[in-house]
Here is the input.
Amino acid sequence: MNVKLIEFEIMGDERGSLVAIEECRQVPFRIKRVYYIFGTKPYVQRGAHAHKELQQVLIAVSGSCTVVVDDGFERREFEMNSPNKGLFIDKLIWREMKDFSSDCVLLVLANDYYSEFDYIRNYAEFKKYVVSRQMINVQKSKGLM
Ligand code: TYD
Here is the structure.
């Protein structure tokens, strides 16, 4: 699954801590958009979508939350609870975010601007899309396309 945890270096001194993130260095893409989710009400789930092209890195800069990722075949859960931990999520990965602590600030770095056309918001449709992409790739590898 094209999802991986990234550990950011903490630059600390007697005053406290600092993490620096530069595009194409600590994250594997050019950063075109930054947004953050905060003040999430208890028991709320967010996400529940995949992106056709977008790549993202999620960081719980404060508090914690659980991120569930699913490539259509396998499902994994990550506990995001540290400002020096980022979760890289490639395109075509279904994600759900839940168990937000009341102090959670989930920072998201993305490699493109917001576009509703890039979203797949229905799981069955996501699954169909992933399977059809796989079939196209198999045909291409056999030189049939
Ligand atoms: P939504 O995608 O539903 O958030 P989540 O995936 O966390 O549940 O986004 C909520 C609203 O914010 C929706 O109306 C779209 C808007 N939005 C933007 O305008 N720009 C953005 O970069 C994002 C992520 C969302």
Helices lie at 123-141. The pocket of thymidine-5'-diphosphate is lined by residues 33, 35, 37, 46-47, 49, 114 (CB under 6 Å).
